[in-house]
Amino acid sequence: MPERQSSRKDAIRNREAVLAAADALFSRRASPEDITMADVAAAAGVGKGTLFRAFGDRAGLLRALYEARLEPVREAVETGPPPLGPGTPPQDRVRALLDAVLCFKLDNGPLALALEDSGSDSSPYRADHYERWHGLLRAVLEQIPGLTDSDFTAHALLAATRADLVEHLAGERGIPRERMREQLAGFVAKVLAPGPRPGGTVEE
């Protein structure tokens, strides 16, 4: 029993060391593609076998690092106060959720780009993190009276926060962070605003 507990502690310690090393490497390199599993293993002081046993492959390591960085946001969404947390009016929460996604992508651009490129079956829309955001946003949209097709609307709103688009706007177009947040808030407001809907109906 003591040996098993010691092995478990070693595994936890190795995992933490790998995530810390990977986090430092991704923070320093402009392109995540330049970072190999061997680089991470060397920086963490563990063997490549340990790395692959803990995370499976490079995509698994990226997901674990992404989840570690996202943890504070997830806690705020699940149990925090308004505007991210439960109990917030749905329109306000939709805006806050998308703003949180945008800010996270701005703060973690290279990692977000790498992760979106490593989705299941080469599709970022099948990645676990995307499905979670989409499911949460869809559930909140369903609480807005008169809003139809929350599933598609959630996809359309999340498309405005794709890492490649955020990188293009912030990097190549040079749009300042606060301006991007304002633009996204304006877009969300237009999508959620009462008005004509397909079929000629009007929300009140």
Tags for this entry?
two-stranded antiparallel sheet; 69% helix; Homeodomain-like_sf; Tet_transcr_reg_TetR-rel_C_sf; HTH_TetR
Quick structural gist:
The chain has 204 residues and is mainly alpha-helical. The chain has helices at 2-28, 37-44, 48-55, 58-79, 90-107, 109-116, 128-141, 150-159, 163-172, 177-192; strands at 196-197, 201-202.
Order of helices and strands: HHHHHHHHHHEE
Tell me the total number of β-strands: 2
Strand content: under 5%
Tell me the strand order in the biggest sheet. 1-2
Helix vs. strand class: mainly alpha
Counting copies of identical and different chains, the oligomeric state is: single chain
Shape: elongated
- How widely separated are the two ends? 65 Å
Low-pLDDT runs of 5+ residues are 198-204
* Computed CA radius of gyration, to the nearest angstrom: 20 Å
Number of helices in the DSSP assignment: 10
Give the biggest beta sheet: 2 strands, antiparallel
Proportion in helices:
55-70%
Mean pLDDT value? 85
DNA-binding region: 36-55
Keywords: DNA-binding
Pfam families: TetR_N (PF00440)
Domain HTH tetR-type: 12-73
